[in-house]
From TrEMBL:
InterPro entries (UniProt xref): UspA
CDD domains in the record: USP_At3g01520-like
Limits of the UspA domain: 69-132
Organism this protein belongs to: Populus tomentosa
Pfam families per the UniProt record, alphabetical: Usp
Name the UniProt record assigns to this protein: UspA domain-containing protein
Length: 135
C-alpha cells in the first residue's frame, strides 16, 4: 500500500512587490509547487515599506491574486518588511516562505541580498526558499 504525500496540506507564502524578481518567484511557485498547495491556499504577502506607499502595490497585488491558478489568500501589510514577513509566517502557520532575490548590482548587492534573506533564514519559523531569477 502506498503512502499518500502529506504536502497538499502545507501552507506556502510568497512575498511580492513591484520587482521582476518578485514576479519571477511568484511564477516559480505557481509552476513548481501547484500540486503541493491544492488543499491550502497560496498566501501572497505584499510587505510595504511605509503606510503611505500602499497605493503603489495595489495593481500588481490585485493582478497576482486574480491571475493565480490556485486558491490564494492575500495579505497587504505596511511597516518594516523584515518583521512583517516573519510575523506573518507565524500568524498564518506557514511551512515554506518563498522570496525572490534582488536586482541591486555592485558592492551593495552582497550586503542587501544578505539582509532580507539572512533575516528570514534566521528568524522565520519555517523553511525559506530564495528564488533566483535567471540572467
Amino acid at each position: 500500500m502506498e503512502k499518500q504525500i502529506e504536502g497538499s496540506k502545507k501552507r506556502v507564502m510568497v512575498i511580492i512587490d513591484e520587482s521582476e524578481h518578485s514576479s519571477h518567484s511568484f511564477m516559480w511557485v505557481v509552476d513548481n509547487l501547484k500540486e503541493f498547495i491544492t488543499e491550502s491556499p497560496l498566501v501572497i504577502l505584499a510587505a510595504l515599506p511605509a503606510p503611505n506607499f500602499k497605493f503603489l502595490y495595489g495593481a500588481q497585488f490585485g493582478t497576482a491574486a486574480l491571475w493565480c491558478p490556485v486558491k490564494a489568500e492575500t495579505i497587504l501589510e505596511a511597516g518594516e518588511p523584515y518583521e512583517l514577513i516573519c510575523n506573518a509566517v507565524q500568524k498564518n502557520n506557514i511551512n515554506l516562505l518563498v522570496i525572490g532575490n534582488t536586482s541591486i548590482n555592485g558592492t551593495l548587492k552582497r550586503d542587501f541580498l544578505g539582509r532580507l534573506s539572512n533575516y528570514c533564514l534566521n528568524n522565520a519559523k519555517c523553511h525559506v526558499l530564495v528564488v533566483k531569477k535567471p540572467e
